[in-house]
Amino acid sequence: MAKRRKVVHSPSIAADRICPDGLDDPAISAEVERLLSRRTRDIRLNDQINRLYRDRAWPQTAKIIRAWMIWVAILGVLTLGLNLLLLPPDVSKSMILPSAMLPPIALAVALVWRRPRAPWLQGSLLVAGVFAILLSIALVGVSAGGEFYERHLSIMLFVAITAIIIFGIPLAWTAIIAALALGLYFVFQLTNPSLNLGSALASTLFFSTGVFATVAARRNMTILAQKTFLFELRDRRRVSELAEVNDRLASLARTDPLTGVANRRWMEETIDQLWDKGNTGPDRVAMLMCDIDEFKKLNDHLGHAEGDRCLIQVATLIQKHVRRSRDHLARYGGEEFLVILPGMSETDALCVAERIRESVEAAALPHPTSVVSRYVTLSIGVAVQAPADEKVSSEQLQRSADAALYQAKQSGRNRVVIHRPAQTGTRGRPDGAAGKTAPRAASPSSTSA
Prior knowledge:
The protein has helices at residues 15-18, 26-36, 47-86, 89-112, 119-144, 147-166, 171-190, 197-253, 264-277, 295-302, 304-320, 346-362, 394-410, and strands at 285-292, 328-331, 336-342, 378-385, 416-418, 424-427, 440-444, 447-448. It is α+β, with helices and mostly antiparallel strands. A six-stranded mixed beta sheet has the order 2-3-1-4-5-8, sandwiched between helices.
């Protein structure tokens, strides 16, 4: 017999590893499609999708915020040290207290953002922490006075702008940070002895344009990130649907549509895999070739509908007597079923075969034209590859099981016959028996179980 082509299996994609929580909700899918059909600037996420987006973006956002806070703390300490070394003592000493506020505040905010918390809590603490940092920077300039006054207020706005640009946080939080930064700048400019009210307003308005432009840019960046997330949700849903379709097609390709058990193609692939594990074959395996006796007469007399019902019931009965975790059952031909029993001895295989035969006979499925019984019966051929035996190919073992089935048919049907490899010969098989017309080789010396 020609060697079957080896089939390479590729793992199917599990839908639950592709879709984020809630994406299988039709309402969410419909909302995603609706949002993507709109203009980019009009995208507004509802509560459900916004929660998915927040969960998706939180790790990266938190990492950026923590890094920003840690670097602000480090630069604050370095700046204070340089001021103490380079500036006059009276100026540098006035900077110590407000500068000392900055590192612990920044580190505290970084600590808060190490793990997810309630959004309102994290947002409040972030805004409060940024405000305290900006206030600390402004107070350094106010305390030092002179040229440091205006310089540190500009530094404060620069720090605020960097936070606005890189923090991927909700627009409301961004707007609050921007408003607090401009408010602090305006208040301290009003108290600047070297500026009058008009100059304070003018400088505040000048910096306001830059700050609000930054907020607008941050808003556009957030909307683009949200749109990218929506595309990701849609793509994941489509991949999930495609994976489900592929799984269904794969299941259909390996399942007999009538009986629901595996089909011949799947069984041949399974046999190839089983024999490939040991190169020359498994150490111990049994094959049962089961055939419904005189099935053609049943089909002709009772009709195809009754014949189909008989096949379904017989497949169900066989399935009940095999180990689901190890054994393999397939509809191998019209009324023929093949059972593979890995790791099973000859005695156990005969017991399983006999239980299957008895259960089919006990089911009392009507077969009025059978010469064997008034009910449906089963003939079973058994072939066993034992550890002590010479290794045989899967094709050889199948031929042995089929030869044993032929012997069961010849010796009266409704029985179990095991192939004895010690005696081999060549016998023909009558045309039409078990749906086969070709002669079979290797007739067994058989015993009835």
